[in-house]
């Protein structure tokens, strides 16, 4: 059996070590000449908080405010991701064959990542893991762990500090 990868999905948050997760995916993309999709999922606001704000602001004003601010935040996040991709590409020995595609969505991370993986027919999902304490992990769980359990696709989990920053020569 030969392993082939055409589409690689890298899901990232805005954590300090997640830039290296993108580099890991870019390295794989270079080796397999695969298309990289970088996904950031903006979290949803709790419904009870939204109801309280809606009562104070009014439902119409809140809806307009959300629409304007979500679009602006998504645009800023896309720009940040594009800049991050360029920075991380400097560390690669090979040129990136296909420019990475950036996706920013709003919703719950796990279902959004799995849906995106299905929509692009991802051959691999690359995701970072955080070093959480046992208590925090027990109560909050882990997006990486949930993706690993729920996905029918291969998943690569990149631990914190997996790659040391060394520029190409």
From TrEMBL:
<dbReference type="InterPro" id="IPR006015">
    <property type="entry name" value="Universal_stress_UspA"/>
</dbReference>
<protein>
    <submittedName>
        <fullName>Universal stress protein</fullName>
    </submittedName>
</protein>
<comment type="similarity">
    <text>Belongs to the universal stress protein A family.</text>
</comment>
<dbReference type="Pfam" id="PF00582">
    <property type="entry name" value="Usp"/>
</dbReference>
<dbReference type="InterPro" id="IPR006016">
    <property type="entry name" value="UspA"/>
</dbReference>
<dbReference type="InterPro" id="IPR014729">
    <property type="entry name" value="Rossmann-like_a/b/a_fold"/>
</dbReference>
<feature type="domain" description="UspA">
    <location>
        <begin position="5"/>
        <end position="159"/>
    </location>
</feature>
């Amino acid at each position: 059996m030969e392993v082939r990868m055409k589409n690689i999905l890298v899901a990232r948050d805005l954590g300090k070590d997640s830039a290296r997760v993108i580099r890991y995916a870019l390295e794989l993309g270079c080796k397999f000449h695969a298309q990289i999709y970088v996904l950031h999922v903006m979290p949803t606001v709790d419904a009870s908080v939204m109801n309280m704000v809606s009562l104070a602001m009014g439902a119409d004003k809140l809806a307009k405010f959300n629409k304007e601010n979500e679009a602006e935040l998504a645009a800023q996040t896309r720009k940040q991701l594009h800049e991050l991709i360029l920075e991380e590409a400097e560390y690669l020995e090979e040129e990136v064959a296909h420019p990475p595609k950036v996706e920013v969505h709003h919703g719950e991370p796990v279902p959004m990542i799995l849906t995106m993986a299905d929509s692009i027919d991802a051959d691999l999902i690359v995701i970072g893991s955080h070093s959480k304490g046992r208590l925090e992990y027990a109560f909050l769980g882990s997006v990486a762990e949930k993706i690993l359990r729920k996905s029918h696709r291969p998943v690569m989990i990149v631990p914190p500090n997996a790659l040391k920053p060394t520029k190409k020569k």
